[in-house]
Amino acid sequence: MTQSNTHSDPADTPETLGGPQGDSTRKDPEEWVTGDEPMTGAQRSYLDTLAREAGEELPGDLTKAQASEHIDRLQGASDRTA
Q1: Is 46 within the bounds of a domain?
Q2: Where is this region: Disordered (predicted)?
Q3: Nearest to residue 50, comparing CAs of 31, 25, 69?
Q4: I need a labelling partner for 77 at 20 to 30 A (CA). Which of 34, 47, 53, 71 fits?
């Protein structure tokens, strides 16, 4: 006799945290607790590289959230990935 199983095998299901919100590692920068803080040195360096490659100039006083949004945008327009 074959038993019907409506649940998928746990080994086939990726581990998640935080419930139905989905991927908790990617938050909208607008929701970051520290999003209003100045961008980090690593963000500044990477954003400088991406902006130069794209031929853009960006303000040097971006917040962490703003820098992240520009990084995502510029990565999407280039061959670079995170």
Answers
A1: yes
A2: 1-43, 57-82
A3: 69
A4: 34
